[in-house]
Amino acid sequence: MQSLTTHPNFRRSILVLASLVLIASLGAFSAQEKTRPMIAVIPKGTTHEFWKTVHAGALKGASESGVDILWKGPAREDDRDDQIKVVESSVSRKVQGIVIAPLDEQALVPCLKEAATAKIPVVVFDSGIKWDGRSSFVATDNRRGGMLAAEELGRILAGKGKVVMMRYVEGSASTSLREDGFLSTMKEKFPAIQIVSSDQYGGATVDSAYRVAENLLNRFTDLDGLYAPNESTTYACMKALTDLKRGDKVHLVGFDASEKLVAGLRAGSIDALVVQNPFRMGELAVTTMAKVIRGESVPKDVDTGCTLVTRTNIDEPAIRTVLEPPIAQWLKE
C-alpha cells in the first residue's frame, strides 16, 4: 500500500498550499508597501550644501520610521511663490504629512492652514512661522547661535573695534533670530565695539551677497570684524575679504558649514563658524512627523543643537561628527 506522504495527490496538495501561502504573503507585503505613509519634505531651497545634508538626514529618518518622503523645494531661497506651490501640490496629492522649512514666517501661513483643514499635519523645521497650528518645531536655537558668534567675535577683538553684520533675507525667521542674538549680545557684553552697519541684506545667492560684502568693505576701510548669518553670506564675505586682500585685518565669524567654509576656517580665512546639525535636523523632523501620523505625542519644540567651531577644536571627535555627516550613505546623487 502506498504511503500517504508519497501519494501524488498529496504532493500536489502540498505544492498548491505552499503556492497559496507564498501568494498571500507577497500580497500582504505589497499591501504593506502601498500603505507606507508619504511625507512631503519641503526645504527652503535645494542648492546649498546645508539642504543636501538635511535631505540625507531626512532619508535616514524615513528609513528608521517606515515612511517614504517626497523631497521637493524651490531652487532659490527667495522664491516664496514656488514654495507655496509645492505645499499646494502636496495637499492635492493627499500626503499624510508635511515637513517644511518656511521661506517666510508669514507668506506660508495661508497654504499651511489649508493643509491643516485637509487633515494633513504639519511639522515646521529650521525656521519658524507665525502660526500655532504646527504639530512640532524642529530647529536650532538660532538666537543662541547668534549669541555664540557675538561672544567669539568680541573675544577675538578684545572688546573693541568696528564691526559689520550682514543680514540674509527679509522674512527669514531663523536668520533674523541669529542676527538679533548677535546684536543684543554685542550691545550687552561689548559696548565698546561699534556696529557700523547692520541693515544690509546679502540676498539668497552667493553672487548677491558677494556684491553687498564688496560694497561694505569698500565703504568701511577701517573695519575690524564681520558677521554673516548663514552659509551663502559667510562664503560671500570670505571670498570678498580674500579678493580685496583684507582677510589679514578683518576677522570673520560665520554661520553654517560646507566643504569650502571648513577649508576657509582651516586656512585662516574664517576665524570661527557657528555650526548647526542639519543631518540631525532632517532626521528628527521626519521621525517626529512619523510619530504624529501614528498618533503619538511629540514635543512642541525640538532643539537640534549648535556649536562654535574654531581652528582649535575642529578636529575633536564630536565636532567632526557634525562636520562630516554620512551624506553619501543616504543621498545617492
Word description of this protein:
Strands 2-1-3-4-5-11 form a six-stranded parallel sheet, sandwiched between helices. The protein has twelve helices and twelve strands. The protein has three domains: about 5-35; about 35-140 and about 280-305, Rossmann fold; about 140-275, 3-Layer(aba) Sandwich (Rossmann fold), CATH 3.40.50. Helix 2 (about 50-65) packs parallel to helix 10, helix 3 runs parallel beside helix 4 (about 110-115) and helix 5 packs across helix 6. The N and C termini lie far apart (about 65 Å). Helix content is about 50%, strand content about 15%. It has about 325 residues and is an alpha/beta fold.
Q: Walk across the major sheet and give the strand order.
A: 2-1-3-4-5-11
Structural class: alpha/beta
The percentage of residues in β strands lies in 15-25%
| Assigned CATH architecture of the largest domain | 3-Layer(aba) Sandwich
Round the Cα radius of gyration to an integer and report it. Answer: 25 Å
**Could you give me the name of the CATH homologous superfamily of the largest domain?**
Response regulator
Overall 3D shape: elongated
